[in-house]
Amino acid sequence: MAEYSKSEAQEWARENLRGQWTTLMTPFTPDDEFDEEGMRSNIRHIRSLGTQGGGCTWGMGEFWSLTLEERLRVFETVADEAGGEWPIAAHVTHTSYKDMIALAEHAEEVGFDLLIVAPPYIVTKTEDQVVDWVSLLANETNLAIMFYNSPQFGIVMSAQGLEKICDIPNVVGVKEASFNQELSIETHQLLGRTAIISTPDEWIFRKGNELGFEQQVMFANTSDWRFDRPGKNYYNQFIDKVMRGDLDEEFYAAHVKPIKDLSDKWWARTVKMANGALPAPLCKYWGELMGMAGGHVRQPHINFNDSVKAELKQELEAVLEQI
After folding, report:
1. What is the domain count for the chain?
2. What is the pTM of this model?
């Protein structure tokens, strides 16, 4: 759990937001209830891979489909399983500022280390509105905050807008997931010396090598538990190598690229299937194939049918035999 004062948030983040952080799915039982034991099992599995920390109720965690009570219960389950020994982040985005504050307060009470927040995705259409929204949260919490810049929330902030957000006390950085490489690079170059900027894909390491900036944390993606297995945690190993200044392209080509290429193929296919929505159905079923709890995605998202599942299973098993 967080052991820093509000004024120490940036210092804490510089020291602790490092390496590979995961994105936790929210597993559901066949009767559409939150699978608490599945979540606990998933966390234990992910920690065994060497992942440094994790976040829950992200977009991939289907926060938009959860009731407020379910989100609070997920927080409690994740915090209890982490036990103060594994850093955790809570996503508190909501269209109601009162519920956003309630989520933040509960996350702090049960022992989370960090919050992540995005625009409330309905009437927030200007950058100034987003800055004001994040300021509202920052004023009401002692926890460090990462801002989530993603088109899934209806507005993508410019690098200059992100700079204003990072000027807010206890905002420590940005998960720059706009899928716009030019924006990610500009944000790193503009803010990377004063804030923690994380683009959740490995291409950013190569570009940083080329342009002279560093990313200290992969915050956060599903690649660890979708690519790694106990005893073969190559993705975590690759990220750890990068954090030590070793961008080992040969290691990546041998142990990560084959499964990343498969992931990219299926990612694009699933996003197209859902007309732009994040590919939660892909990640949930992929997780099941790796031995984790997943279950269905809730409406209005689109679940994979049996034939699509069979195709993914066959292709994933073939790649896993290679690496």
Report:
1. 1
2. 0.97
